[in-house]
Structure formats: structure tokens, C-alpha cells
Automatic annotation (TrEMBL), chains A, B:
One of its GO terms (cellular component) is cytoplasm. Keywords: Amino-acid biosynthesis, Aromatic amino acid biosynthesis, Cobalt, Cytoplasm, Lyase, Metal-binding, NAD, Nucleotide-binding, Zinc. It is found in: Cytoplasm. GO terms for molecular function: 3-dehydroquinate synthase activity; metal ion binding; nucleotide binding. This is 3-dehydroquinate synthase. The gene is aroB. Pathway: Metabolic intermediate biosynthesis; chorismate biosynthesis; chorismate from D-erythrose 4-phosphate and phosphoenolpyruvate: step 2/7. NAD(+) binds at residues 109-113, 133-134, 146, 155. Zn(2+) binds at residues 188, 250, 269.
Amino acid sequence: MSEPVIVEVGLGERAYDILIGPGLLARAGTELSRRLPGTRAAVVTDQNVAAAHLETLKAGLEKGGIQPAIITLPAGEKTKSFAHLEEVVDGVLAAKLERGDVVIALGGGVIGDLTGFAAGIVRRGMNFVQIPTSLLAQVDSSVGGKTGINSPRGKNLVGVFHQPKLVLADTEVLDTLPIREFRAGYAELAKYGLIDRPDFFAWLEGNWTKVFVGGAERAEAIAEACRAKADVVARDEFETGDRALLNLGHTFGHALEGATQYDGARLVHGEGVAIGMALAHRFSARLNLASPDDAARVEAHLHAVGLPWRMSDIPGELPDAEALLGFITQDKKVSRGALTFILTRGIGQAFIAKDVPASEVLSFLKENHPGQPK
Amino acid sequence: MSEPVIVEVGLGERAYDILIGPGLLARAGTELSRRLPGTRAAVVTDQNVAAAHLETLKAGLEKGGIQPAIITLPAGEKTKSFAHLEEVVDGVLAAKLERGDVVIALGGGVIGDLTGFAAGIVRRGMNFVQIPTSLLAQVDSSVGGKTGINSPRGKNLVGVFHQPKLVLADTEVLDTLPIREFRAGYAELAKYGLIDRPDFFAWLEGNWTKVFVGGAERAEAIAEACRAKADVVARDEFETGDRALLNLGHTFGHALEGATQYDGARLVHGEGVAIGMALAHRFSARLNLASPDDAARVEAHLHAVGLPWRMSDIPGELPDAEALLGFITQDKKVSRGALTFILTRGIGQAFIAKDVPASEVLSFLKENHPGQPK
Ligand SMILES: NC(=O)c1ccc[n+]([C@@H]2O[C@H](COP(=O)([O-])OP(=O)(O)OC[C@H]3O[C@@H](n4cnc5c(N)ncnc54)[C@H](O)[C@@H]3O)[C@@H](O)[C@H]2O)c1
Ligand SMILES: NC(=O)c1ccc[n+]([C@@H]2O[C@H](COP(=O)([O-])OP(=O)(O)OC[C@H]3O[C@@H](n4cnc5c(N)ncnc54)[C@H](O)[C@@H]3O)[C@@H](O)[C@H]2O)c1
Ligand SMILES: [Zn+2]
Ligand SMILES: [Zn+2]
């Protein structure tokens, strides 16, 4: 078996490794007991992931002498709620785990965010290990320590920063991921190229089919994404500055998710981000910050991999441009009335723009809205 | 008006001031807007405290240009629950406060613990200010950043470390506190003398009546307690070592609270701590670690101020010694089966004892149990 790629997240006392490669579920017990000898564990997962991968993980943990308590939740974004948080907290306490024991998230971003939050609050912080099983979770949500749940008043409004002790990104588990979810995760992967790694974006343009197929290119792409995210997180653990760059595509994306009532049948998060990234480049071109050629290049690549890239790619009707702006101004990244956007000067040259005039955003949304005259 | 005493909690980036003195509610707006200019705020309180002090605080905040949202909860330990946590979180979000705005706890330890937890998780951490109104909260719970709620599986099992930006301990608000609650808080105040400040304990033996009456001695005693707690917290913010000293009296105390089903009519927390401290000294004497004279001195002082100090002071029947031991071994301070106790070599000489044999504890409990032959 090939050795995993290791990416270190350099956070001083809270530093940890991300292991990336095939067969890591089967090695989980060995990796864990090496780092946290004698630990006991609980595994939190969802029904889809449990069906596909729980037995492999249990066998892997067994090799390290770990027989975990298992907490299985329904799949889907609705699971990121207070009710399920309480359920996980209670499950961990019922297993009589102590502060030095470990809570393991086996699943996509939903399970990772919820479980990390629970691990962050049981006994005021337990050891936490991420075993991300979606591409999105491997390249994004499992790295960096942001955890949380949704509130009826908005997504991800409640949570803590709680860094894992270890991330095991098993690249083989992605083979059971629905292709639409794989593509959605790919949007976040490509995002790192667009933020500040133009060579990575160019590499993806040439090699994306191999990433989809699996093998060494998939592991390498995931590792590069983790390196990119780890860099940003190490610079700004608590999102007081630079880390906001990771929101490229997310302001428009969140507005579209809100406008489609977070209905995954119409739009999943990564798809919203794909459209959002295309819009961010197009908007930057309209503001004469970037070349329209760059926007076209982004659009072409997203289209090639089968991702939606414009509002008209979303099935069903969208609310009008004014309503979309309303979703943007409610966004929590808005600071005291001024609109903050991640804009770009070209591929790999994203930056944080504060004070973007709402009127410009509105005109842009009107021009690009599928249901209104262009 | 006399100037408040200021105690600094030296936590580097997270350092903050505790202001102690009369009239601080009326000055809250000035103190807050000096430190967090332009902030908006929500005040979380309970019905008892709201009736006695909310109008004064609102007027005080108004002077700093702050018109807070108000969230009023029922009084009592049951309020430290997931349901009320969700209620506070929702209230803060409904007030559309941003990450830089402030959540204020006006109340005793219950309101402080719950509100601090909510402030720690809304938007992954908002500014937090403590305005403790019980003596226990002024000398203990409002300082140090431990926040949390109870679980059906045990007290304070869920929470975060979230330091306040400021603590305003208004010594006048204690005049409306029921005397029994004042006494309970006094037990925690005396605790600091017993841990490592023998001179403070001796001072309290001579001056406790003035602390009860109010005035400069009350403020000085509270300030000394805050200094003691701030010292420990600065050495060990996340309770990985020394901070456990603050649990003096709490292992026995929690067992007695559990054994009386947390029924405040029989035993409130500080009363449990009073009995627990007396027992910790008596147990240390029995183990030949300390002189029986010291145990007698502690018992005499607790008795003088009107606090319970032995198990027979608790109204109603207690479970037998074995059952009490069961409450102790379930305690979260138990690490992998070994019993950890805070014991003492004399007044002001407490220390952390790991591996205390359960058999010794059991014999001691049997000897001191009111319902069993001595
Ligand atoms: N914490 C962060 O920094 C961060 C960053 C980005 C996104 N997120 C969050 O992540 C969530 C989205 O994550 P997601 O896209 O992984 O969603 P998800 O967890 O809902 O997973 C998507 C779907 O794929 C299924 N699945 C996952 N792995 C599988 C596998 N190997 N085989 C078969 N099915 C599998 C899941 O059961 C689910 O139905 C959102 O809630 C978002 O807010 C968090
Ligand atoms: N976070 C920590 O480090 C820490 C430390 C010690 C205790 N605690 C917690 O603190 C809680 C106990 O605190 P508490 O004793 O303040 O309990 P509390 O908050 O329930 O207050 C006791 C009673 O006094 C009332 N009250 C408070 N201030 C008043 C005033 N000025 N006038 C009239 N009535 C007033 C309250 O309404 C309540 O009925 C427990 O939940 C305990 O776990 C936390
Ligand atoms: Zn995203
Ligand atoms: Zn206490």
C-alpha cells in the first residue's frame, strides 16, 4: 500500500497532521493509537456513510485496540441542528468518555461540523479526529477547526473553533460518493487555485479527469488543496483577516442557496460556490478589476467538469435581483452595513474588498438574472 | 462615589479587568463604551435579578448610548439547559448583533454560565461581559472563563472556555440577595483562604461580619478572592493542572448535591462546598496529613457564619456511604478510575492528591455519616 501524503497544519500547540491517501480507514486504529495511546472513542456518522464505510473503520480501529461507541444520524444539512447536537453530546456522555478520549467524525461536512462542535463543548473540549468522506470535507470543512450548526436565522451561525488532533482523508472512500457530490466538492478544490495558486488551477484544467477517476492525481490534488487551506488557517486561525479569502464564491453562493431555500435537489453548497466563483470573476471584470478572459476561463472549466456556473443553470425560478441582494446583505460577512466581497484581479489573485457599493451588486445581479431582460 | 478596586486577569491577549465596588451598574455604559466603543448589546438576566436591578443597569447603559435587547429567563439551576441555551442564542441572533457586539450576563452563576456559553458559540464567539449579582458569581463563576450548562448525565458537562472582556462586580447589588445565597457565596470566598492564603482566612475569621454588612470590607474581601482566582486562572487557563485546586471542597460537595438531587431547598451549591471543605480538612487529618486542630478551626468558622459544615446539617435523609462514594467516582474529576481529591496539609496548604484509595474515602464517609453508627 502506498504511503499517505502528510500535510501539517502549523498551529503551534494545536498543530496536527492531515494524512491523505488510499486505505486510511483500515489504518485508523494504528494512526490513532500512535498519537493518542490508550484512548477510547466514539464515532459519529450518517446513515449513508455508515452503510458504505463503517465496518471498514471499525475493523481498522479494532487493530489499534479501539472499540468505539457508534452514533448514527440521518444524512443531510438538517442534521446540523441543536436537536442533533444535543443527541451527539448525550451519546458521547453516555459512552462515559473523558476529556482525553476522542470523538471521531466519519462523514461529509455535515457530520464533521456537527461532531466537531459537540467535541468542542463536551467537558469543555474533547479530542477530536476528522475522517472526512466527501470531497468537500476532505479539501475544506475537515481542515481548520471551524465547527457548527445552523440556526433558523441562518447557516453556520452557531459553533466554536475546535481543531482536530488528526485528519484522515482516505481517497478511496470517495468512490462511493454520488458524482454530483464529488463535483460539488471539486468546486471548492478549484477555489484554492482561483484564490492564490494559478499554477494549481492550470494543472486542474489539464488533469481534472484523473482527479475524478482516482489514483495518485486525486491524492495530489487533495493534498495541494489541504496545503492551501492549512496556509490560510495558520495565518488567521480565528478569521479576523485573511481567512475570509476562503469565502471566494461564497457571498453569491450563499445568496443562491438561501434563494433556493437550501433545497439540495436544486442546488447543493458546492454548486452554489461554483456559480458564485464564476459570478465573482465576472463581477470583478465588470468593475474593471480583472480581464473578462479570466472570467471566461473559469466559466469554461466549471462547465467542462459538469458544474453549474450561471444562475440559469439552477432548475426552477429564482427570486428577482433585489431579493437576491437582500440575501447578500443579511449575510454575516456584512460588517455594519458595508458590503464585503471577495473579488479578484485575475486567476489566483483574489482579494478582500470592503465597501463594495450595493448598487453595483444590484445592477450586476440584474444583468445576469435569467428571469429578467439582459 | 468611591473608585472601584481593579483586579487584572493576566491572560495575555485575553487579559481583562474586574472592577469591584459600589454603583457599578450605574456606570456600566461608561465602562463599556470606553472599552468597546460603538458596541451594541444584549442583556441576559433572570426574573429575580431583573425585578431588583435591570432598570438601574438599563439607565447605566443608556449613559453610554447603549440600548440593549433584553432576554429574561426563569431563575434557578434548571435554566442551565440546552433548551435555554437555544433560547439565548436565538435572542442574540434576533437582535442582529454581530461578532464585535457584546452579550452581557446580569445575574448569578446560572445566568453567567449560560450566557457565557451562548456568547462563546454565537458566530463562534462574541464579546462577553459579566455583571455578577450573587456573591458566588462575584468571587468565583464570573472570573476565569468557564461557561456551560448541565446535562441530564451531570452538572456542567457541556460548555466552553470563553473569557469575558470585562467583569463589573457591583458590591451594592448583593444587598438584595437572600441571606442564604450570600452565605453560600461566602463559602467560596473562604475557600481561597483555605487553598493558599492563610492570612486571608485569618482576616475573615476576624472580619466576616463586616463583609456581611457591606462597605469597604466587603469590596476588599471580594477583590482578594478575585485576585486569588485570577492567579490560578492565569497559571492554568484550561484546567490541565493547578486550576483543580479550586475544587477544594467540591468532590464531597458535588456528591452531596447529587445525593440530594440538586434540591436547593435542602442544599445549595455553596452549602455543599462548605460541608465539602470541612470534610476535606477532616479527611486530611484522618490521613495524618493535617492537624485535627485545623479541621476544627474550619468547622468553627463555617458554623459561626451560619453555614452547614457536616452531613447531619442537611435536612432529610442521605443515601448511605456506599451510595455517596458512587456519586464521587462518577465525578468527572476522576481520571481513569483513580480518585483525585483536593487535600490539605493545613489552613492555606491545599494540594492535588491523585490516587486516593476509594476504600479510605468509604471508611471516612461511614464514620461521618449521620445515619450510620460512628
Ligand atoms: N467547517 C468548515 O470550514 C466548512 C467548510 C465548508 C463547508 N462546510 C459545511 O460542510 C457541509 C457540506 O459538506 P458535504 O458536502 O460533505 O455534505 P454532507 O456531509 O451532507 O455530505 C453530502 C452527502 O454525501 C453523503 N456522503 C458523504 N460521504 C460519502 C461517501 N463516501 N459515500 C457515499 N455517500 C457519502 C452524505 O451522506 C450526504 O448525503 C455544509 O454544512 C457546510 O456548511 C463547513
Ligand atoms: N463558571 C464557573 O467557574 C463557576 C464557578 C462556580 C459556580 N458556578 C455555577 O454557578 C451557579 C451557582 O451560582 P449562584 O449561586 O449565583 O446561583 P444563581 O445564579 O441561581 O443565583 C442564586 C439565586 O439568587 C438570585 N439572585 C442573584 N443575584 C441576586 C440579587 N442581587 N438579588 C436578588 N436575587 C439574586 C437568583 O435569581 C437565584 O435565585 C451553579 O450553576 C454553578 O455550577 C460556575
Ligand atoms: Zn464552501
Ligand atoms: Zn463552587
